[in-house]
Amino acid sequence: MKKPVQKRRRLDYPLETPGSKLAAEARKRANSLTDDQRAEALEGARALIYGHAKTRQVAGARR
Fold first, then answer.
1. What confidence score (pLDDT) does residue 54 get?
2. Which of 2, 22, 40, 42 has the most neighbouring CB atoms within 10 Å?
3. pLDDT at 26 (0 to 100)
4. Computed from CA positions of residues 17, 21, 23, 24, in that sequence, does the dihedral angle turn out positive or negative?
5. Each residue's pLDDT tens digit in the chain (63 positions)?
6. Shortest CA distance to 47 belongs to which of 57, 33, 36?
7. Between the CA of residue 6 and those of 3, 9, 16, what are the distances in Å?
8. Cβ atoms 47, 55 nearer than 8 A
9. Structure confidence at residue 7 (pLDDT)
10. Who's near 56: CB < 8 A, 6+ residues apart?
C-alpha cells in the first residue's frame, strides 16, 4: 500500500490573509450565540437567500 503524499504548500502564499482573519472572527462570534439567536440568524439568512415572504419580515427588522 502506498503512503499518502502530503500536498506541497505554496511558499509564496501567506499563512494569514484578511479573509482568514475575517472568517476566524465570524466563527468566534457565531460560537457565542444562544440557540434563539442562532435560529433568528438562520431565518434571516434564509430570507435573504430564498426570499420567502414570511421570513422577509424577520430579515427586514435587523437591517
1. 60
2. 40
3. 92
4. positive
5. 788 888 887 788 888 999 999 999 999 999 999 999 999 999 998 998 988 756 445 555 554
6. 57
7. 9, 9, 20
8. yes
9. 81
10. 47
The predicted pLDDT at position 31 comes to 94
48-59 in b/e form (b: 16+ CB < 10 A) is eeeeeeebbebb
In this prediction, residue 14 carries a pLDDT of 86
Is the CB of residue 31 less than 8 Å from the CB of residue 24? no
Would you tell me how many other CB atoms lie within 10 Å of the CB of residue 44?
18
Determine the distance from the C-alpha atom of residue 15 to the mean position of all C-alpha atoms in its chain, rounded to a whole number. 20
Instruction: Evaluate whether 50 touches 61 at the Cβ level (below 8 Å).
Output: no
> For residue 30, which amino acid is it?
A
Domain edges within the chain: 35-63
